[in-house]
Amino acid sequence: MNFSLTEEQQFLQKTARDFARAEVLPQAARIDREHKHPTELVAKMSEIGFMGVAVPEEYGGAGMDNVSYALAIEEIAAACASTAVIMSVNNSLVCDPIYRYGTEEQKKNWLPILANGEKLGCFAISEPGAGSDAAAQTTVALPDGDDFLISGTKNWITNGPVADVCVLMTMTAKERGHRGITAFILPMDTPGVSTSPPDDKLGIRGSKSCQIFLDNVRLPKSAVLGEVGGGFKVAMGTLDGGRIGIAAQALGIARACLEDSLEYAMERRTFGKPIAEHQSIQWKLADMATEVDAARLLILKAAYLKDAGKPYGKAAAMAKLFASDIANKAGRECIQIFGGNGYVTEYPAERHFRDAKITEIYEGTSEIQRLVITNYMAKGK
Ligand code: CAA
Fold first, then answer.
1. Which of 45, 190, 258, 315 is 20 to 30 A away from residue 373, measured at CA?
2. CATH at 29
3. Which of 76, 46, 83 is nearest to 62 (CA)?
4. For residue 273, what is the domain's CATH number?
């Protein structure tokens, strides 16, 4: 077993860390305060290859592996969780399915412009009545000549208000249940597509999400992603990879909690010494550091399995379950260490605490991750 990163992975990690500290961190509080989509940061991330990290170079991507991708997300999330999820959705939920399930024409049409930042993507599976129960799709796509006519409503769509293209799940044959679900690549400027005002959220306030309304949206058959009726497998396969991205985002948040807590604890004095010298604080810091390392190992294992072409769904679910749990714990402890200063917006602790919560919900709640893990175990995997 080799725990070392390759030179390429180390280079990518350092590039991400330097960029995150110099460009992203100084803006993180303002992005949160103003609920602002970080347009300029996304443009800069595109320039350094971060919007298509694992997209092969022949399709305009950075051509790196999924380990590098997870390392990059961790660094960006440690600076700004909102910016990290914008990157994660474009990479994991849009570029990845188009690369894995798309036709050659779809790959050539979409991947270069998604990777270079010309276009931004979103992924629409959730509906008012289909969150955890993802197969309960009610957005219908009815054949109409050589086209499909699509109507329905999608909920909580990350990047929705600013996206140019959407990987969209629909129901083409209700009687077939999950085997009646079909995925499409939907340009967001197609007539009949509209969006609600952005959601007003607890955390990741710089990441815009909204409802998408589809009113008799006409798409050609060439917009089907994968097979007609094969959309549920596209969605589940995509979310397996997405969970690595969200786990890495959660890890970044947890690491930010640890680093900010440590710095604060070395400076803040009570009872005549820095609070870092009190055992009550030392135990918190030691637990946070141990959990951050354990989460990273789970994430890198899942990314490594994906790169190796081995099954990684269970590993990705475990990584997301654990990383999102420890990020929330780290958020709580960070506020506790900062004390009164943790509860006010002048310090970053409360932002970390708010940003962490969503990682236990999107791309499969923690309850769904446990279900996925148990399903694998029941099959002896
Ligand atoms: N890869 C490929 N196929 C898979 C799969 C996977 N990981 N998991 C399941 N399937 C297949 C099964 O093999 C089965 O196929 P067959 O019928 O051919 O045998 C089929 O899918 C149905 O499987 P299940 O019976 O297990 O499906 P289910 O209806 O019980 O649901 C579930 C399974 C795991 C609960 C699923 O519904 C799920 O993952 N729910 C959570 C949804 C989710 O993560 N939503 C996130 C929204 S996106 C988001 O959050 C983005 C954002 O904003 C950032």
1. 258
2. 1.10.540.10
3. 46
4. 1.20.140.10
Helix (H, G, I), strand (E, B) or coil at 182: strand
Helix (H) or strand (E) holding 322: helix 313-338
Do residues 317 and 369 make contact, with C-beta atoms less than 8 angstroms apart? yes
Report whether 157 contacts 169 (CB < 8 A): no
Q: Is residue 301 part of a domain?
A: yes
How far is the C-alpha of 184 from the C-alpha of 221, rounded, in Å? Answer: 9
Q: What is the pLDDT of residues 342-379, one digit of tens each?
A: 999 999 999 999 999 999 999 999 999 999 999 999 99
236 CA from centroid of ligand 1 (Å): 4
Distance 368 CA to ligand 1 centre (A): 9
pLDDT tens track for 108-135: 999 999 999 999 999 999 999 999 999 9
**Catalytic option among 127, 333, 360, 363:** 363
Among candidate residues 198, 229, 260, the one where a domain is terminated: 229
Instruction: Indicate if 165 and 112 belong to the same structural domain.
Output: no
Write out pLDDT tens, residues 249-308. 999 999 999 999 999 999 999 999 999 999 999 999 999 999 999 999 999 999 999 999
Ligand 1 center from residue 12 Cα (angstroms): 32
Euclidean distance between CA atoms 257 and 342, whole angstroms: 11
Say if residue 70 is in the same domain as residue 116. Answer: yes
Which residue range forms the structural domain that includes residue 108?
A: 7-120
Q: Three-state DSSP class for 80?
A: coil
Query: Quick check: is 363 catalytic?
Result: yes
Ligand 1 within 6 A of 173 CB? no
Closest by CA to 38, choosing from 26, 48, 49, is 26
Q: How many CB atoms lie within 10 A of CB 153?
A: 17
CB 275 within 8 A of CB 262: no
Cβ of residue 335 lying under 6 Å from some atom of ligand 1: no
Measured between alpha carbons, how far is 116 from 52 in angstroms, rounded to an integer? 7
Pair 236, 360 in one domain: yes
Give the residue among 116, 7, 9, 16 at the shortest CA–CA distance from 72. 16
254/269 same-domain check = yes
Q: Is the CB of 124 under 6 A from ligand 1?
A: no
